[in-house]
Every structure is written in structure tokens, then in C-alpha cells.
Amino acid sequence: MDLGLKGKRAIVTGGSRGIGRRIVDLLVAEGCAVGFCARNKDEVDDAVSVLSKGIVTVIGGVVDVTDDAACRTWVSDTATALGGLDILIPNASALVGGVDEEAWRKGLEVDVLGTVRAVEAAMPFLEDSDDASIVAISSTAAVNTSGGVRAYSGVKAALISYMSGLSTACGSKGIRANTVSPGAIYFEGGVWDVRKRNDPKAYDAAVARNPMKRLGTPEEVANGAVFLASPAASFISGTNLIVDGAATTRVQF
């Protein structure tokens, strides 16, 4: 299937590793000009070095999405440098554990307000696009409680609600808004890699609970996110795509 992404312009936050990096990789492979940011300069520089060997424009930025002015300025400046913007994928996450006030504040600042800042800065550019799309990265933790109260679950649920609201508010402007919710995803250096090394019983239990008897990959999440962002999904808006190998124990309507 031709996703219709060649020549499109995209911005991804949290794009230097894991799911975000695979999203950037796939967008570039599909012919998109891409701007991405992360906090770690070495990781950003490494990604730009690898991805800039092709023919499309790749712009990397060192940005903390909790810095309101820096985040908004970077999104605006990057969209301008790309010559406009068709796709925004807010992926940056604090991956907070716990439920204390500090966890809530950190999750809200990074996951929720980091997304809001990026969306608001990108909106004037998206309004000028013929194929505008926003895809936020949430989590199955938002829709399937399996361990008590967690700040992470709450902030990821807020993203789904936010995207749903944007889908109806911006539909008349030709801007689609969707969410992708990954389940347990394994990659080197990621949360489940750390758990595999530090708590192998918990890791093995997660694998055993999944009907597919494995964890997912960043590539599998990226495939869903990039499809939803593309013109091939032109009449899909307001949805939350679960990518978890059927691990969530609920009926999805």
C-alpha cells in the first residue's frame, strides 16, 4: 500500500530512541521530511547522522518539552524550516512510576502539557496543510487497569481524551487526531529490557500473559502510528489504536 507520505513534512517529539526513533525511521523511509527532538544531544546527533544519508531533510533538536517557550519555539522554527507541517506525533513521555504528587506533576508536565505545547505551536502550520494529522502516543495502561492506581495510567488516559476532543474540534479544518496505545514493548535500554535484567520473573510473567507469548517491538507500534498519520487513513479520526498483541482484557467498542 502506498501511504502517500512522500513529500510530507512531520515533527516527532521524543524521537531519538525506542518507539519514537522507529517512527522517525519509518517516516524518513516513506519519503517524509522530518524534524524530531529529544533531551539527549548525543542520541539526537547520532540519529541525524544516520538518517541524513538519504535524500529527505532531517532536522534534530535538543529540547525538553517541559520548557514551554523552548518547546513551542522549536516546533514553530522546525515547521518553518521544513517549509510547513503535515504531521505531528507527540511521543515524549516521562514514563513515571508511582502515584505520589511528584509522579503526577512529572507525568502531566511531560506527557500531557508537552503534547499540548507541541499541538498548539504546530496548529497554525497544520491548518495550512491539505493532509494534516496528529497522532499522540498513549498506552494500554490508560484503558486496562492492572496494578492499582498509577499516575502513568492517568496521564496517558488524558492524552486519549485530548485527541478525541481535537478530532471533533478540528475536523472541519481538515485536521485528523488519533492515538496509538502500545502494550508492553521491548527494546534494548527500554523499560522492559531493564525489567528483564532486574526482575526476570516479572518479565516472564508479562510474556506469559500475552496471547502471542511475546512482547511487541517499536517497529510494530511505529507501523500503526505512521499509518494513522498518513493520507491512507484519511477518514480515520478520533480513534485509539491498541497495539498490544491482544493483551488488554476488555472488549473494545
Q: How do the strands line up in the largest sheet?
A: 3-2-1-4-5-6-7
Poorly predicted sequence stretches spanning 5 or more consecutive residues: none
Total DSSP helices: 8
Distance between the termini: 27 Å
Percent of residues in β-strands = 15-25%
What is the overall pLDDT average?
96
Q: How many strands in all? A: 7
Count of discrete domains: 1
Helix content: 40-55%
- Largest sheet at a glance? 7 strands, parallel
Task: Provide the descriptors you would attach to this structure in a database record.
253 residues; alpha/beta; Rossmann fold; 8 helices; 44% helix; 15% strand
Structural summary, described in words:
This protein is of the alpha/beta class. It has one domain: NAD(P)-binding Rossmann-like Domain (Rossmann fold, 3-Layer(aba) Sandwich). Helices cover 44% and strands 15% of the residues. It is built from 8 helices and 7 strands; from the N terminus they run βαβαβαβαβαβαααβ. It has helices spanning 18-29, 41-51, 68-81, 101-126, 151-169, 191-198, 200-209, 218-229; strands at 9-13, 33-38, 58-62, 87-90, 132-137, 175-182, 240-243. Strands 3-2-1-4-5-6-7 form a 7-stranded parallel beta sheet, with helices on both faces. Helix 4 (101-126) links the parallel strand 4 (87-90) and strand 5. It is globular and about 50 Å long. 46% of the residues are buried.
